[in-house]
Amino acid sequence: MKILSWNVNGIRAMEKKGFFEWLQKESPDILCLQETKAHPEQLTEKFIKQEGYHSYWSAAEKKGYSGVAIYTKIKPAAVTEGLGTKEFDNEGRTLIADYGDFILFNIYYPNGGQGNKRVPFKMKFYDSFLAKIEKLRKQGKKIIITGDVNTAHTEIDLARPKENVKNTGFLPEEREWVGKFIKCGYIDTFRHFTKEGGHYTWWDYYTGARSRDVGWRIDYFFVTENLLPKLKKAFILKDVMGSDHCPIGIELKI
């Protein structure tokens, strides 16, 4: 089973960038998208009824903001939106798909914002998410978590750590939370296979950072420890263009 995840930074603009051709060529069993920035009624039928896939969407109340989606060849037993807290759920950040064999969380975690103004909101979201997922993990559920976490965990996860210690995405409290999350028993799948730095998933548009590979690894796949024997591969598709993020993926034997 191949599962991919991609922050597309606006799904509607992706149609002209070869998104559907890429999807059919890559042919993942499941594709999780973040920052779709669209309500389903704003999309053409091609987006909603893509050949070979069921699609599920969660949109923010605010137009052109946030949003997540799942394309899946396998129809889940159930799909739910949100974490159960209105403060977070009206931003369309979470889709939870229950496949029976595992539960998949597709999440666009908050950005700390200009001047770090939204960092308190981001940390509250992190804690609310952790409380919800820990209940499931303690019940023995097999869980996959993916999305744009908006935090680089360690110094090897971004090109310029020293310059960013006071910026959201690399603040001590944000990094500490990711560390706490991992210690609870969630495996950073990419780091499970790849120990060295220099692998990134996001590059700043405005500074032309991608051409210089001055990036951050802020998009992740995590799995619970009980799924680790099934995990075969974790990878970053750094050469796929169309967004300021690139897709990431895992392969599991399920």
Task: Throw out a few tags for this protein.
254 residues, alpha+beta, six-stranded mixed beta sheet, globular
Topology, pairings included?
Blueprint: E1 2-7, H1 11-14, H2 19-26, E2 30-34, H3 45-48, E3 54-58, E4 68-72, E5 78-81, H4 86-89, E6 94-98, E7 103-108, H5 119-138, E8 143-148, H6 172-183, E9 186-188, H7 189-193, E10 202-203, H8 209-212, E11 215-216, E12 219-224, E13 231-236, E14 248-252
Helix pairs in contact: 5-6
Question: What does this 3D model show about the protein?
Answer:
The protein is 24% helix and 26% strand. The chain contains 8 helices and 14 strands. The strands form 3 sheets. The chain has a 6-stranded mixed β-sheet with strand order 3-4-2-1-14-13. The N and C termini lie close together (7 Å). The mean pLDDT is 97.
